[in-house]
């Protein structure tokens, strides 16, 4: 029988109604759950936003930077715009269960249209800003979107490049930025301000229309389609319901004291990751509507580091790529400073390393030794470092969506940034495991949330979950939905895991990514890849070796970092490819590979490597929208390099 996790109580059935399987269940005290209904109907993200507007109308809910000045959206203004947008959708003929899609960088209009769609019982469909035209066509046709929001001319062009007959359900294309679009002649186009004006007119004529629909909302209404990244095929639209989202908020957002503090209106969040991703939706939208945190929208993904320093958020979430980049920036900036500052930084980082190890060995809490060292290091080095990376006020930071090298988290914990790794997926509304202050083991993703069904199959090692946050299935793909559940109704995550100290979970890898060498040895490539990427000089790494005699790797350099390194050594270069092929750079990366090999067993050592000759890109098909490697596409694209290593 599959192993049952230690934090398992009151395991709810998934949407298909399958009863929990028999087994050993250990109970845990549950927090006070969210009420299923109110006198005005089912609780939704829209009704929670409305309630904040009624309770604290002058509280600032969101801020965006416009011409260098931060513009504030109070709850009163925010909800007014949501109502205008909701009435606008009704004026366009949007009905309950109709899909409204959004392709945009993070901005207030994303949140507003999302909440407006839920308010009228529609279904929000998020697209990544980087989705190319072919993927936009697939997502709009697969979802059957009726209204689509495109941020600017670039996003509008991607829709207009699609043959209209293929988008027979798409009636309107809204756009936020008029530059370049004003002269377009397409009856489907509608400027955002004109859309809101249309909503205001509809609202004046029928002021209660949105309230009536909100009161009719049901727990099992599909609230959003979250499309998976598509590493092994076309993206699939995971259907999340109102009850799924309420459960996720109950488990992740609402519990007080679990993160070492209580989330509330005084907390500040920087919103910069794509809002179509479930992790950013949890951290931004769902924190906003349930706890009234203040959302601050980054100007762009390129300005995140600047905006971090300016905002100094109290809560912060990042994918490993961001953490790695911040870690590399400290290393590189330190190397570019004066000899005295380099010596000073080296002293501080030595202290941080000792503090990090001490705290990690103590579950993330200070020991007497680490506290003393921190008293020395904080005023001398750590305070300035925290300020520099933009996390001076951060009291809880999270990493998720992909595995991260333990060394990176150890660095941030050492300088006083409480960073913890968690685990979840779109299909279970991100509710699975998390490390917490005082209860963490580095290299694991923490313990299962209290009260959820969580187990690791003894035969396959696959992690499986079962609770009220588990999705209802994939949009228009019943066969794929059936494949995702076990016979007794547990969600199959596709991730291989193992127990650590009985209650903590360590993710080994995706089942499909495990390498089995010709000698029969099972190897997790992600552990080796993450170790390589702790180097500030390595951006991408892909370990190869399935059915091969030894492991090899394709490695992509961090162009800016390696370029800076080359300039300081008077090594001329022109392009990315030219730089990556320099003998000095090959030697630099060889040293990184050798350092990584020392951390692993001989059979897990990388015997050969080749440099990736270009920067990987989503539009070229090597990466998913979430910047994960498409391994099959990589092998196909760089076959010559791979075969050369095994020639």
What secondary-structure arrangement, pairings included, does this model have?
Layout: E1 3-4, E2 37-38, E3 41-42, H1 45-55, E4 60-66, E5 69-74, H2 75-91, E6 99-103, H3 108-119, E7 123-127, H4 133-143, E8 145-150, H5 153-160, E9 172-175, E10 189-191, H6 192-205, H7 209-215, E11 222-227, E12 237-241, H8 242-253, E13 268-271, H9 278-291, E14 294-297, H10 304-311, E15 315-318, H11 320-336, H12 339-361, H13 368-389, E16 396-399, H14 406-414, E17 419-423, E18 433-434, E19 447-448, E20 453-456, E21 462-466, E22 473-474, H15 478-483, E23 491-500, E24 504-510, E25 515-516, E26 522-523, H16 525-532, E27 538-544, E28 551-557, H17 559-568, H18 576-580, H19 583-597, E29 606-611, H20 631-637, H21 639-645
Parallel strand pairs: 4-14, 6-7, 6-8, 7-11, 8-9, 9-10, 13-14, 15-16, 16-17, 28-29
Antiparallel strand pairs: 1-20, 2-3, 4-5, 11-12, 12-22, 17-18, 18-19, 20-21, 21-23, 23-24, 25-26, 27-28
Helix pairs in contact: 1-2, 1-3, 1-9, 2-3, 2-6, 8-9, 12-13, 12-14
């Amino acid at each position: 029988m599959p192993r049952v996790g230690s934090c398992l109580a009151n395991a709810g059935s998934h949407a298909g109604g399958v009863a929990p399987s028999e087994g050993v269940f250990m109970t845990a005290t549950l927090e006070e759950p969210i009420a299923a209904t109110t006198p005005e109907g089912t609780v939704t993200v829209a009704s929670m936003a409305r309630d904040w507007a009624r309770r604290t109308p002058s509280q600032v809910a969101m801020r965006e930077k416009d011409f260098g000045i931060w513009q504030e959206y109070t709850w009163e203004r925010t909800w007014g715009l949501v109502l205008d947008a909701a009435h606008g959708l009704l004026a366009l003929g949007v009905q309950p269960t109709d899909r409204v899609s959004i392709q945009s960088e993070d901005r207030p209009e994303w949140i507003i249209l999302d909440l407006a769609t839920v308010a009228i019982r529609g279904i929000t469909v998020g697209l990544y800003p980087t989705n190319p035209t072919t993927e936009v066509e697939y997502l709009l046709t697969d979802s059957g979107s009726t209204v689509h929001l495109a941020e600017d001319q670039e996003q509008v062009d991607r829709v207009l490049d699609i043959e209209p007959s293929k988008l027979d359900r798409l009636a309107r294309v809204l756009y936020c930025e008029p530059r370049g679009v004003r002269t377009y002649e397409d009856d489907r186009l509608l400027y955002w301000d004109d859309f809101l004006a249309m909503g205001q007119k509809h609202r004046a004529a029928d002021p209660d229309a949105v309230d009536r629909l909100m009161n009719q909302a049901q727990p099992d209404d599909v609230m959003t389609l979250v499309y998976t990244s598509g590493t092994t095929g076309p993206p699939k639209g995971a259907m999340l319901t109102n009850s799924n989202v309420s459960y996720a908020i109950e488990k992740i957002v609402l519990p007080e004291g679990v993160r070492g503090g209580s989330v509330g209106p005084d907390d500040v969040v920087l919103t910069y990751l794509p809002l179509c991703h479930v992790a950013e939706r949890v951290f931004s939208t769902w924190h906003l509507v349930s706890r009234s945190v203040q959302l601050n929208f980054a100007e762009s993904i390129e300005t995140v580091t600047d905006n971090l320093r300016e905002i100094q958020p109290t809560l912060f979430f990042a994918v490993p790529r961001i953490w790695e980049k911040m870690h590399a920036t400290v290393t590189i900036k330190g190397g570019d400073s004066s000899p005295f500052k380099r010596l000073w930084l080296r002293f501080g980082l030595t202290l941080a390393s000792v503090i990090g190890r001490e705290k990690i060995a103590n579950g993330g809490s200070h020991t007497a030794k680490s506290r003393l060292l921190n008293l020395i290091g904080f005023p001398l080095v750590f305070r300035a470092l925290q300020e520099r990376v933009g996390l001076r006020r951060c009291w809880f930071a999270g990493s998720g969506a992909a595995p991260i090298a333990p060394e990176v988290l150890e660095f941030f914990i050492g300088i006083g940034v409480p960073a913890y790794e968690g685990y979840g997926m779109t299909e279970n509304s991100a509710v699975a495991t998390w490390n917490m202050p005082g209860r963490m083991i580095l290299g694991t993703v923490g313990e299962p949330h209290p009260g959820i069904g969580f187990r690791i199959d003894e035969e396959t090692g696959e992690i499986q979950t079962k609770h009220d946050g588990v999705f209802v299935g994939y949009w228009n793909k019943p066969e794929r939905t059936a494949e995702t559940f076990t016979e007794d109704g547990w969600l199959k995550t596709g991730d291989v895991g193992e127990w650590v100290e009985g209650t903590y979970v360590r993710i080994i890898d995706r089942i499909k990514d495990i390498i089995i060498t010709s000698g029969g040895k099972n190897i997790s490539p992600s552990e080796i890849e993450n170790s390589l990427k702790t180097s500030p000089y390595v951006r991408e790494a892909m370990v190869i070796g399935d059915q091969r005699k030894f492991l090899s790797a394709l490695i992509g350099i961090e162009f800016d970092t390696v370029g800076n390194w080359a300039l300081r050594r008077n090594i001329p270069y022109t392009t990315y490819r030219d730089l990556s092929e320099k003998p000095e750079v090959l030697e630099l990366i060889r040293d990184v590979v050798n350092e990584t090999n020392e951390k692993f067993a001989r059979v897990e050592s990388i015997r050969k490597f080749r440099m990736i000759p270009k920067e990987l890109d989503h539009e070229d098909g090597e990466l998913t929208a979430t910047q994960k490697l498409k391994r099959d596409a990589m092998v196909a694209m760089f076959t010559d390099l791979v075969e050369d290593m095994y020639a």
